[in-house]
UniProtKB/TrEMBL annotation:
It comes from Vitreoscilla filiformis. CDD domains: HTH_XRE. It comes from the Bacteria. Residues 36-79 form the HTH cro/C1-type domain. InterPro entries: Cro/C1-type_HTH, Lambda_DNA-bd_dom_sf. This is XRE family transcriptional regulator. GO terms for molecular function: DNA binding.
């Protein structure tokens, strides 16, 4: 737990984790570094603590957060796995059809 904050009870930590998960799922437009930073901040963890929980190096996590590295799919799954999430593929909505004469409409 980040020492800048008072120590939280286990139920309080669970509430923060749930909130972090809901926030990330509610904002699919966030980049992976933004999502990782939000998870870390919301759960009140330091970079070293989150890296240890994810089983990756603190420098690797720091590079991802600061957008110096994209991180591999495996690394991102380790980070997101801390809160029970994983990277996935989803369908993007096609742009709205503006002309019925367009063949793709």
């Amino acid at each position: 737990m980040d020492k800048r904050y008072k120590t939280l009870t286990l139920p309080e930590q669970v509430v923060l984790r749930r909130q972090a998960i809901e926030d990330v799922l509610a904002h699919p437009e966030w980049t992976l570094p933004e999502a990782v930073r939000h998870l870390k901040k919301t759960m009140r963890l330091t970079t070293a603590e989150l890296a240890k929980l994810a089983g990756i190096g603190a420098r690797t996590l720091q590079d991802i957060e600061q957008e110096r590295s994209d991180g591999s799919v495996q690394t991102m799954n380790r980070i997101l796995g801390v809160v029970g999430l994983r990277l996935g593929v989803g369908r993007v909505k096609p742009p709205a059809c503006t002309s019925p004469a367009t063949p793709s409409c």
